[in-house]
Hints:
Elements: H1 2-69, E1 85-90, E2 93-97, E3 111-114, E4 120-121, E5 132-145, E6 158-169, E7 172-183
Antiparallel strand pairs: 1-2, 1-5, 3-4, 3-5, 5-6, 6-7
Amino acid sequence: MNIMCEQKGQTLVEVMTVMFVLVVGIMGALGLTSANVRNEHSNLTRLIASNLSREGVELARSLRDSNWLKSVSWDTGIGADSDRCAYVKDTASFKLLNCGANGALKSDIYRVYKMNQGGYMQDQAGPQGGDNTTGFYRKVSFEEICNIPGCNWIDKIGIRVISEVGWQDRSEFRTIKAIEELYNWR
Length: 186
């Protein structure tokens, strides 16, 4: 009979131990799931920002190539002596701006909107017909590339295109840049 009483107490301790192990395991799994959901959102916003940044550079490359086909100066619409900042006006052009007056990335002039029919756009007028405001900002800036010290915008041999995208990720404002050097190699 004594053996039976000892086993009953032992069973209660075993059940409590098993319950503790199960609770700790379930809490760990829930913690990992929560962290994965947070990281998934951060990774998605980083991917969108990376693509928006690359799109700014690709537009500059497309403009250069289109200018060659139109037989106009290769750098038409890709910066100017006084206007070296821009936002992407539409899929085929920049809206050139003076960097001194419009230099801050986190400014409404550089805000990116998600279009109702898909894709992203920038327009100083704001979202159009149901487009949604995003937390992204995109600024494209241009620098001359020179082969002699102290050259100016007119004497350049190329243009460095810097497409910078910023966004709020939880409590931190993050940025990503795509940089490309374009030359008149034609």
